[in-house]
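In this section we turn from sequence analysis to structure. A common task in structural bioinformatics is to predict how a protein folds when a small molecule is present, because the ligand can shape the pocket around it. The inputs are simple: the amino acid sequence and a SMILES string for the ligand, here LF53FM6H. Study the lines below before reading on.
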Amino acid sequence: MQTKLPADAPIIGVPMCVKHLDNHNFHTVGEKYLTALIEAAGAYPLSFPALGEAIPPAALLAHLDGVLFTGSPSNVAVHHYSGAPDRLDSPQDPGRDAITLPLIREALAQKVPVLCICRGFQELNVALGGSLHTRIHEQPGFNDHRGRTDVPFDEMYGPAHEIVFAPDSTFARLIGKTSTIVNSLHWQGIDRVADRLVVEGRAPDGVVEAVRVKDAGFALGAQWHPEFRATENPDSLKLFQAFGVAARERAKLRRARPPVAA
Ligand SMILES: N[C@@H](CCC(=O)NCCCC(=O)O)C(=O)O
């Protein structure tokens, strides 16, 4: 990777996920999120472990200029919202749920810039009181939005369907058009939209794909994966560049006001 950021580039937090390997818990994060922040947003990623309540949101946010809530194969536990039971083999990550859901609420309260992708998009809706479909492809009228596992990685994250954005949406303003073609790798999706969310884009079958948080500064959610080769996709690049601009603004304010010891 060639990008060399200035020392005062903003710092964007990235939650990790728990993987169980050889009887140990490992905390991991997908590399494409990290490289998208550096190369497209012009920010340093700072990953933090999925250790739930052990890391209070306010303590974490005192050191961050934004948070990127990433995708993950695991699902938000249904007990966090009133929804139909999830499939028995649904991958779960309670440590991630325990840190991201309150962190989203605190970040929005402090107007810390957030970009929420795939699982992060679903966490945003649940954190604000919405609910999820656990298996979209089994819902009448919805297409299958799951990623294919029998194709090469680049094809897995390749173009899957169109999204149409509302003409007055933030997404349309940022990318300069009202539609784009995106990838799709999700079983789950928004059912009841949280009151604080504005639906800004939908897939052709009506699945909610893009949301904005009302009155919250830069606070966007994408059900697709703009981090995948972000610098090679003009629409993804514009989204991450806007995220970086918002984080730089916060960095100026944060550095002018060092955190007060609790
Ligand atoms: N588990 C949820 C969210 C799916 C998701 O985030 N997929 C991407 C996982 C790998 C990556 O980070 O690219 C669902 O199935 O809806």
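The domain at 11-256 is CATH 3.40.50.880 (Rossmann fold). As an exercise, try to locate the residues that line the LF53FM6H site and compare them with your own expectations.
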